[in-house]
DNA sequence: CTGAAAGCGCTAACAG
DNA sequence: CTGTTAGCGCTTTCAG
């Protein structure tokens, strides 16, 4: 907070540069003075001023992380991965929430640039409003990577799950369990590429089995739904009142699935006997719900870890490769879809 | 990324300081040149180098936030509050997870100091290992505040919930519902002051009604329990096998409560008829569980907001007041404890 | 192996 | 109202 290189130098009667070198383990300083300097630094409670260092070295060793918000478990799992690896590599991470607003996202990114972050990991807002900004960053070779979702209009590195495959897996499982009238709750961001992929998986699975019933609940009324859980709850209640009631629900994420589950229970339906429910993400709590929730597992923290690693090496290297990585999802079967008994389920 | 004050100055044929002043809305510059400068800056894509600025001004406008981890919903709600207010005040927040390890916590704090954060919001690890560090910071007048929990050995500002009152409320409610053999699942950090307060609320409630049955499950075996949910699940299964089976569970947080709920359901018990369960925190999902969970509401994001506000004003002001703030918890009754019907419940 | 000096980009005193 | 100058704390040539 107070003590600087100059202080140490003075107290030891050596020059500032020697102190700097010693502290950085520069071989051009004698072992003996290095020891002396380090001891003195330790003793005086010296903490290197990274700000000053950065001004010279042009590296802050800080990463930016931007996501929609920290209210649901999924982005936090990614953040946990990012933070852990960053920390292990001597980096810090500075966070921002875009609240799904492109303007806010833009502000955050420029704020981060002003703070001279070495790179950014972002789960982008689905909008074309910042495409120019992203392209500008890319053109300058700034290390940036999308996680969880990406913008097809931007040729930027990204790491997501193979959402198509995950959805296919999930819906095929429902069919395998004898469900026939399967509805898809696409959530409040149905226009997102990754969500579309899941919807595509849904329809393809139905097609493979020649099932004609299909119902995709999109995001017409985003305003009415403050949270995903409420979305699932609300629209499921509606669906259950409709003439052609579904016998299974494929929810685009676990929060929506939870809301749907709640609605079914309230309506007096038995899960999985009367209606099956499967989610997406496989968040930790799924396994502990009173009716445990089947889901498609996404490697969330792995996503964060991989993203952090990529950004850090991109920041270090003189140049970087653009990667487009799809992690493999897996089907996790639990009570909410298992009506045939485990032995028959696959 | 590239363009500096000097560039703008050169292109406009004015001095660097004029540009700086204009950009900072210093009244000592003519309206006209201010406009010209701002236009040029905008045009050239200037982004102020906060690093360089900080080196002069000694203010980064960055806050540090440290918590155990981002895996459970509770700390994330606090972070959301911190981030939102910070952002609104033009601050950024840099995060770190201590993973309940005092050493890591110490490293994070010094890293943050090196990065010259203006203040730190921390949910401290329960340990006396860093007491000296905290006292050292306090002695230097560094803005730091504890959230969610505090260390009684350190005279540092803190914001928590009135945990005693919350627990009292919850357990009295259980008694009111006719439960008599109430167990307390204290979790893996029973030695934490705030947890102790909840335990005190538990015992006092029992005392008030002359109930002799009490059982406090502490943290003997932290190693076996990777997560809180598992803790709740695991120990509840044990309890249900014991001779003097409880008829209600007071869990120290909602994750433990969820684990307990799951265990009860698996054991074939009806909730709330056979056994009542109440948690603590009132996380968003509680209301949507298939059996919705009663809980003690903690104002989580308010906690984050208040903490961020305090730190920011402490960082700005020449001096600050130490505050010890207890937010008021409220009882939220849901299905998991309501066996008498709503009308009789209070 | 060590020291002197320059400079990163910005702001703030001090002149004019 | 505007320009000149110095300096924040550090690293890094360049000399010795």
Summary?
The structure is a homodimer. In chain A, about 45% of the residues lie in helices and about 15% in strands.
Protein described:
Two copies of one chain form a homodimer. Chain A is an alpha/beta fold and 346 residues long. Chain A has three domains: 5-46, 434 Repressor (Amino-terminal Domain) (Orthogonal Bundle); 57-161 and 300-328, Response regulator (Rossmann fold, 3-Layer(aba) Sandwich), CATH 3.40.50; 163-298, 3-Layer(aba) Sandwich (Rossmann fold), CATH 3.40.50. The first copy, chain A, contains twelve helices and twelve strands. In chain A, the strands form two sheets. Chain A has a six-stranded parallel beta sheet with strand order 2-1-3-4-5-11, sandwiched between helices. In chain A, strands 7-6-8-9-10-12 form a six-stranded mixed beta sheet, with helices on both faces. In chain A, helix 9 links the parallel strand 6 and strand 7. In chain A, helix 1 (5-12) packs across helix 2 (16-23) and helix 5 (73-88) crosses helix 12 (300-316). The longest helix of chain A is centred in the C-terminal third of the chain and has 17 residues, at 300-316. The radius of gyration of chain A is 26 Å and the shape is elongated. The termini of chain A are far apart. The model of chain A has no long low-confidence stretch (mean pLDDT 93). At the A-B interface, helix 4, helix 5, strand 2, helix 6 and helix 11 of A face helix 4, helix 5, strand 2, helix 6 and helix 11 of B. Chain A binds a DNA duplex (16 and 16 nucleotides) through helix 2 and helix 4.
């Amino acid at each position: 907070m107070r003590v600087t290189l100059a202080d140490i130098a003075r107290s030891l009667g050596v020059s500032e540069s020697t102190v700097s070198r010693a502290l950085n383990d520069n071989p051009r300083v004698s072992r003996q003075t290095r020891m002396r300097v380090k001891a003195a630094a330790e003793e005086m409670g010296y903490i290197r001023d990274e700000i000053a260092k950065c001004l010279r070295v042009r590296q802050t060793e800080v990463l930016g992380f931007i996501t929609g918000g920290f209210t649901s478990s999924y982005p936090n799992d990614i953040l946990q991965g990012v933070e852990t690896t960053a920390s292990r590599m001597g980096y810090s991470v500075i966070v921002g929430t875009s609240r799904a607003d492109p303007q806010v996202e833009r502000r955050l990114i420029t704020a981060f640039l002003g703070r001279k972050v070495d790179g950014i990991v972002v789960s982008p807002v689905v909008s074309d409003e910042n495409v120019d900004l992203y392209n500008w960053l890319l053109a300058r070779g700034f290390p940036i990577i999308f996680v969880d979702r990406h913008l097809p209009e931007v040729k930027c590195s990204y790491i997501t799950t193979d959402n198509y495959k995950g959805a296919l897996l999930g819906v095929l499982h429902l069919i395998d369990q004898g469900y026939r009238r399967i509805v898809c709750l696409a959530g409040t961001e149905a226009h997102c590429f990754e969500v579309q992929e899941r919807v595509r998986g849904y329809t393809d699975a139905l097609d493979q089995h020649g099932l004609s019933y299909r119902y995709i609940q999109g995001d017409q009324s985003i305003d009415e739904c403050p949270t995903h859980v409420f979305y699932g709850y609300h629209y499921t209640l509606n669906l259950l009142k409709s003439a052609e009631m579904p016998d299974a629900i494929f929810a685009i994420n676990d929060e929506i699935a939870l809301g749907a589950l709640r609605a079914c229970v309230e309506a007096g339906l038995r899960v999985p006997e009367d209606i099956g429910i499967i989610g997406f993400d496989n968040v930790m709590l799924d396994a502990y719900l009173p009716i445990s929730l089947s889901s498609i597992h996404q490697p969330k923290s792995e996503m964060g870890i991989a993203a952090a690693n990529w950004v850090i090496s991109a920041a270090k290297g003189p140049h970087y490769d653009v990667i487009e990585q799809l992690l493999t999802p897996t089907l996790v079967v639990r009570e909410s879809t298992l009506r045939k008994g485990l032995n028959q389920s696959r």
